[in-house]
């Protein structure tokens, strides 16, 4: 999939980015579950998971380039000093200007990515969520602080292990049920984690809290 927004001239090297939304909420997944954070969601994704709960972000043409300095000021005004950059797939874009400005203001930056595109920018925490349709680049595994694998069926445990074999020794490992299949697959995930305790279980707690 060719993304017209992935153009250095249009984006002024990352000073402008296709912003879907930015908002203050509670992190609902993975290691940082329960922590207040300011989310910056960018548009555009070429992975196309059928069960994605943010399909509205896929087409970057729907989201005109936004001056990231404006978003940084909104983030700085927020009481929580943690930023989550998510999408879509944020690594489609040059993120160095955004992350540099956020760090200059003393904010910590957490990235959520499929790892399917080259890294740009600097992050305090990287959550790698690999997808079968477009697997992570090799560089992504070394950058991951947290590996979060979505489990739709028991066949996905093998996929989870294949990715876990590539991350660093200190990377935290999470299995997360695909939301629409959570009732059907949860018992299998629980048993798998009990038998393989290197894995922890992540759930989409924000959906239970009815928050974005």
Describe this structure in words.
With 212 residues, this protein is an alpha/beta fold. The protein has 7 helices and 9 strands. The protein has one domain: TIM Barrel (Alpha-Beta Barrel), CATH 3.20.20. It is 26% helix and 24% strand. The radius of gyration is 17 Å and the shape is globular.
Summarize the structure.
The protein is built from 7 helices and 9 strands, in the order H-E-E-E-H-E-H-E-E-H-E-H-E-H-E-H. It is α/β, with parallel strands linked by helices.
Share of residues in helices: 25-40%
- Characterize the main sheet: 9 strands, mixed
Number of helices: 7
- The number of distinct β-strands equals 9
Q: How much strand content do the residues show? A: 15-25%
Estimated radius of gyration:
17 Å
User: Mean of the pLDDT scores?
Assistant: 94
Any idea of the CATH class? Alpha Beta
What would you call the shape? globular
CATH topology: TIM Barrel
Total tally of structural domains: 1
| Low-confidence runs of at least 5 consecutive residues | 1-6
SSE ordering: HEEEHEHEEHEHEHEH
Q: Supply the helix-strand structural class.
A: alpha/beta
The CATH architecture category equals Alpha-Beta Barrel
The H-level CATH homologous superfamily, spelled out, is Aldolase class I
**End-to-end distance:** 28 Å
In spatial order, strands of the major sheet run 3-1-2-4-5-6-7-8-9
Name the features.
single chain; 212 residues; alpha/beta; TIM Barrel; 9-stranded mixed beta sheet; 9 strands; disordered N terminus
């Amino acid at each position: 999939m060719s993304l017209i927004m992935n153009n250095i001239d249009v984006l002024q090297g990352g000073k402008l980015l296709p912003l879907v939304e930015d908002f203050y909420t509670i992190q609902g997944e993975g290691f940082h579950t329960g922590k207040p954070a300011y989310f910056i969601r960018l548009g555009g994704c070429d992975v196309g998971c059928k069960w994605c709960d943010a399909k509205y972000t896929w087409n970057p043409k729907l989201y005109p380039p936004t001056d990231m300095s404006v978003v940084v000021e909104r983030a700085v005004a927020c009481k929580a000093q943690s930023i989550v950059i998510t999408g879509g797939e944020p690594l489609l874009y040059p993120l160095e200007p955004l992350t540099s400005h956020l760090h200059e203001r003393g904010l910590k930056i957490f990235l959520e990515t499929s790892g399917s595109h080259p890294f740009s920018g600097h992050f305090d925490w990287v959550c790698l969520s690999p997808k079968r349709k477009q697997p992570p680049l090799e560089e992504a595994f070394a950058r991951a602080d947290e590996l979060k694998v979505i489990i739709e069926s028991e066949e996905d445990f093998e996929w989870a292990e294949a990715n876990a074999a590539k991350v660093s020794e200190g990377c935290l490992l999470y299995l997360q049920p695909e939301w629409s299949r959570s009732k059907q697959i949860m018992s299998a995930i629980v048993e798998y984690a009990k038998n393989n305790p290197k894995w922890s279980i992540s759930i989409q707690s924000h959906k239970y809290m009815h928050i974005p």
